[in-house]
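Lab notebook, bench 4. Still working through the backlog of constructs that have no structural model yet. Next entry is a single chain of 287 residues. Request: give me the C-alpha cells for it.
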Amino acid sequence: MSRPSDTRHSRFQQFRQRLEAFDPGTGWRLWFYEFLLFGFKQAWACLFGALLLFLLLVTHLFYPDGAGLHRYDFLTIAAIGIQAAMLLFRLETWDEAKVILIFHIVGTVMELFKTAAGSWVYPEDSLLHIGAVPLFSGFMYAAVGSYIARVWRIFDFRYANYPSKWATWLLAIAIYVNFFAHHWTVDIRLGLFALTAILFWRTRIYFRNWREHRWMPLLLGFGLVALFIWFAENIATFADAWNYPGQEDGWEMVHISKLGSWYLLMLISFVLVSLVQPVREPDGLDQ
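Model written out:
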C-alpha cells in the first residue's frame, strides 16, 4: 500500500512510492524487481557524491590548460550549485542540509590540520581556499553525510538494540579527537574499533526496499559503506583531487589501511545524521 507523499521532498518521493506500490508478481520477477529497485534507491541516495565524482573525472581529463578559472575553483562553484539545486528541487530537506553543513565544517577543520601535517596534499592552484585546502574538499565530506541522510530516509531505517545516544556521541567525539591527537600521542584507533564493536554488536538495522523490512547487522552495514567510500576515494585520487604520499609521481591505489579511517569517519557522519533522522525501533517487526 502506498503512503501519503511528503511535501518536503521532490517528485522523486512520489515516484518512489509508486515504484514501491507496484506489484511485479512472485518468484524471479519479484526478485529481479527488488534488485532493480534497490539499485535505483542507492543510486538516488548517492546522487550528490556521484555528481562530484563525475565532475572530478571529467575536469581531470578535459579541463583546459590555462583556463581563466582554476579547476579547483570551478569544482567549488559547481559543488555549491549542486547543493543549492538539491535544496531548490527538494531532493534534500533543510534539516538534512544543516547536518551536512556541520559535517562539511568538521571535515574542513580536519583537512586544515591533516594537510599541515603532510598526510596528503592538493597539487593544483586555487583562489577559493583556506590555507592549503581548496574549499571544494569540504563538499566531499558533505557527500558522505548526504548519502547517509538520504539512504536513512529512502529505506526507512529502523534499529533494534541501538545503544544509548550519549554513548554514540562519546564514541564520535573520541574518534574525531584521535584523528588529531594520534600525531602527538598514542593512536587509539584499535581501541575505537573495539568500542564500536562493543556498542553495536547486537544492533540490527532494518531497511525497507519494497514493502517488507529486512535486516542486517549494523556493523556489517558500516563496513559496506566504508568500503564504498574507499572505492570512491580511489577514483578521486586518480582524478588528482588530492594526493597521498607516494601518489605525487603517478597514481596508485589508496592503501587499504585508509578503509579503517573511512570506517571511523563515517561513524561520525552517522551520529551527526541521527540528529535529524529518528532512530526508530522496528515496531511489529521480527527481531
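Notes after review: The longest helix spans residues 94-116. The radius of gyration is 20 Å. Flag for follow-up if needed.
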